[in-house]
From TrEMBL, chains A, B, C, D:
<keyword id="KW-0812">Transmembrane</keyword>
<protein>
    <recommendedName>
        <fullName>Aquaporin</fullName>
    </recommendedName>
</protein>
<feature type="transmembrane region" description="Helical">
    <location>
        <begin position="23"/>
        <end position="41"/>
    </location>
</feature>
<feature type="region of interest" description="Disordered">
    <location>
        <begin position="285"/>
        <end position="306"/>
    </location>
</feature>
<feature type="transmembrane region" description="Helical">
    <location>
        <begin position="48"/>
        <end position="66"/>
    </location>
</feature>
<dbReference type="InterPro" id="IPR000425">
    <property type="entry name" value="MIP"/>
</dbReference>
<keyword id="KW-0472">Membrane</keyword>
<feature type="transmembrane region" description="Helical">
    <location>
        <begin position="215"/>
        <end position="238"/>
    </location>
</feature>
<dbReference type="Pfam" id="PF00230">
    <property type="entry name" value="MIP"/>
</dbReference>
<feature type="transmembrane region" description="Helical">
    <location>
        <begin position="143"/>
        <end position="162"/>
    </location>
</feature>
<keyword id="KW-1003">Cell membrane</keyword>
<feature type="transmembrane region" description="Helical">
    <location>
        <begin position="174"/>
        <end position="195"/>
    </location>
</feature>
<dbReference type="InterPro" id="IPR023271">
    <property type="entry name" value="Aquaporin-like"/>
</dbReference>
<feature type="transmembrane region" description="Helical">
    <location>
        <begin position="95"/>
        <end position="114"/>
    </location>
</feature>
<comment type="similarity">
    <text>Belongs to the MIP/aquaporin (TC 1.A.8) family.</text>
</comment>
<keyword id="KW-0813">Transport</keyword>
<dbReference type="InterPro" id="IPR034294">
    <property type="entry name" value="Aquaporin_transptr"/>
</dbReference>
């Protein structure tokens, strides 16, 4: 296939050992991606391009990061893949930390490059989610509801296109970006359309804006992450790191299963070397099984079929 | 191929036994998809993003549902695939029922999350297709004509991209969504651009709006469904469940053929087990035939060629 | 690969024997496609969606027609593929005729479904290219220049994505549509952005508008068709029907070569049966050659590799 | 696979011997592409379509040029691939020269086809980057910062989608174009969103505009090119022409390595014939290695495995 399509595994559910260079590079990707996404999305001021700049900036940075870090770029996405068993706890904590630091640096860039913007300027600063962007007459419950529905939409797209098999390959980043365009195109005038805790925390930290509503946004994002994971687990089953799944699939004890969910590393007895993760182990098992079936059928086996 | 592309069969013409978990999940998908699509599409109030939010929300929810339910999300699409022989009657009735319930819940969500909106508020409520959205001077016949042309466009895209072979794989949901953007971009100002009976019935049930014109929209959608199916049947032939096709292809009696079109299950003599549907049966036959041809040619056979 | 991608051959350079059912269906596709494209593109009246409706309506109808008629939908495209040797003369004449008839029916649909529009209403009718859409101060030479540059862009995209190998498969219809969006987004305010003789002739025939400038548009489209073909022939060589190519490649006499360019049928001695076209003949030769090379290398040959 | 997807190698990092016809054609492609891109992008005057026309015109011309010249269309991209070791020095100089000449001809076309535009009209001419497009209150440092961030985004997308393996195949031109849409959608009102030295130099040469700020734009583009290359080299390693890489990979001396980076031709001892470039040499080595491994495993080898 010549490497021109993202494997469904890679997008949103790929991870490497914490000590590997690839993982350091992944963290850097999440940092840079969220930083520039926050900068571009925060500085757009007109109504006509607001949803487009946010959605397209997200899409292009997911494309850029997809084959390295999986292109989460959103603590709600990372949190959801964590609880659903696709991402280990340690990795998730580091991702979320770097995403938030990225958003803070993005907001600092806004303060540096927009005339009249300056640190600690309070509500109304570029990119803030505060009372100046919340629609007239919207109650806090409605604000919460809007952000839940929109974030649920975005994370459902992530699961269906980038985690489920068969997914939608290299379409995934585009579709995730377009889901932000669609949500921001209507919800933008009611909530500003955050859909991402880092986008709330970054400007809050730099501009001291939206202190009184930030928790509503963030709780909504986390609830949506749980909802999307629940439905995906019902539809397609838990991820391979979830103790519910790994105890059944690999016959692990509860302690082993929880440890694997925390560290991402399968117990030593399943690994040929130190850096193998659960995907490698499952792939090895699948290959072994395929080989056995092929031998039973008496058919030739191809080393690198597609 | 690593599962990164939707098989043409899957989109819009895939179905499972009514009693299978997959089918229950499919119904859930249609319900959630239409609910959120209706919510996002109904709440957009400005002229600049109306067509985009509707088209992109449709596209992303078809992407999300495509590999599970086929991503119909529209009773006119389901009705068309039913009469063309791609979807069984029982399945279609349940799909259409869930799509309409989804649209009603979507309209309820609108009532809950938009300030000043409330149940039974009548014409002019968000998402309604009533005299307040119909263009000045447009006659009822012209309203009917516009909705026929636009819905015919949308369903033709569904057939050409998602049912015909070769189709356009993972492009299909995007192209269907863009066809709604194109139609709503011009027809929106004349009819509001429904193209979907559920989108008409949902708000009507919740807000009591558009009572006097709803039937025009719905009849137009059904006529467009028949037109698109007729042309597709002329171009590419009937679907495998159509009695015209199954009597010829499998040698069924008229009664057997009609029963299969109703239930989706081929007569027992074609099935190895209870849950096999017509696609499985035809695939088995095709595989058998391919194997025979290969043996004649004396060539090696690959178990899982791409 | 499961048929989910358009083969580059199919898009824009596929054709069948004039007497085949496929060819009749192709003509029907060109007719319906141009009709609805003209209708949707003519009725959009606001500046914000004009380029989008035109570009997306073109894209979705090329998607719909691509695997049947090749999705020309534009006499300038057909004319260019004719002179470049990708499409036979008889087929091209019939395509262009049906495209123009489609555009006329599209304009009639406009007259029927837009309040206040009526046949023979003259300049200013919806979808017309006349002095009411030509930008203030634009000379006839500048009008000509704009349409040449824009149409050249559109046809170059057709060649590079849909005729050249490797091309861009199922991206092609989208890219062609986006090229119309880009051109109409800037040139729309100067010329109305026709890029298609049928779009000029259809409204002219129905509404009697633009009589004094139609020839400028059409000549510009034809010149752009010649320019795009010239550059493509320089870059990638003539098409297989071009006498320059077929005399060299198949060793035909001048008379045989011209006859093949007119009818699309290779001389009898190259055909196994009556309906084989040049693509089939060349594919047969290529397969034969591949088989010979494989035998030389002593490698196994796969019947249906990918 | 039928040639319907761009190989990741082809886009942005493909090159041919300077003396080959393909290279002449590549230069022509870069010239025409930048010319029409400059023309379309310069003439769009309304705020609603500015970012779209620029981004989509870039996307479609990259699609058109991708399989021939690699679709650079931007001296900053060429410069970045040069210093990162993906493009030879001689080729890069000729590319950049033709891109600038293309932009000048594009600006001349603007002067010819826009009423009231004329050569040497100074600041405010269509397509100029001068004080009339720079946002009120923006300092020169902020102008520099904006162009660095935006150009860095565009070139990062080029690397991640079109140079890295696995990349995103035929999605690449679209994603690059959308990155320009996203950047211009917000940065357009501050800097005009050039992201491309040729787009600055072309109008400057023809209209004599922006003399006092052009150097800021161009230095920003070059810095962004270096930044994007540095990060890519850290993440994925240097390109095959970089002396750092070729000394290690092919065991070249420093002089040989530098000569190869300048000319693009590997030392004679690695070539079977005069026109082989580094990609051919590496592909030959990879094939050789694959063959040896297959023989060790005792598995059959396929000649043209997808």
């Amino acid at each position: 296939m010549g490497g021109h399509a993202v494997d469904s595994d890679t997008v949103f559910s790929n991870y490497q050992a914490v000590t590997s260079k690839t993982f350091v590079v992944s963290l850097m990707c999440e940092f840079i991606g969220v930083m520039v996404f926050t900068f571009l999305g925060s500085t757009v001021s007109d109504k006509v391009f607001g949803p487009w700049v946010n959605g397209l900036a997200l899409a292009i940075w997911i494309y850029t990061a997809a084959n390295i870090s999986g292109g989460h770029l959103n603590p709600a996405v990372t949190f959801s893949t964590l609880i659903c068993g696709f991402y280990p706890l340690i990795h998730s904590i580091l991702y979320i930390f770097l995403q938030i630091v990225g958003a803070i640096f993005g907001a600092l860039l806004v303060a540096a490059l927009i005339p009249d913007a300056h640190v600690s300027m309070g509500d109304g600063a570029p990119g803030c989610f505060d009372n100046t962007v919340i629609g007239k007459g919207l109650t806090h419950s409605q604000l919460f509801g809007w952000e839940v529905v929109m974030t649920f939409t975005l994370i459902s797209v992530v699961y269906a296109c980038g985690v489920a098999k068969p997914g939608h390959g290299s379409f995934t980043p585009l579709v995730v970006g377009l889901s932000l365009v669609a949500c921001a195109g209507t919800g933008g005038k009611w909530t500003g359309a955050a859909l991402n805790p880092a986008r709330v925390i970054g400007p809050l930290a730099v501009f001291k804006c939206g202190n009184n509503v930030a928790y509503i946004y963030i709780l909504a994002h986390l609830l949506a992450a749980v909802l999307a994971c629940s439905i995906f687990a019902f539809v397609s089953g838990w991820g391979p790191l979830s103790p519910f799944q790994s105890m059944k699939q690999l016959g692990l004890s509860w302690n082993e299963a929880v440890l694997m969910w925390i560290t991402g590393s399968p117990p030593k007895r399943f690994q040929d070397n130190d850096e193998q993760n659960i995907t490698d182990v499952l792939a090895k098992q699948a290959k072994q099984q395929e080989r056995e079936e092929a031998e039973e059928d008496g058919l030739p086996v191809h080393k690198d079929q597609a």
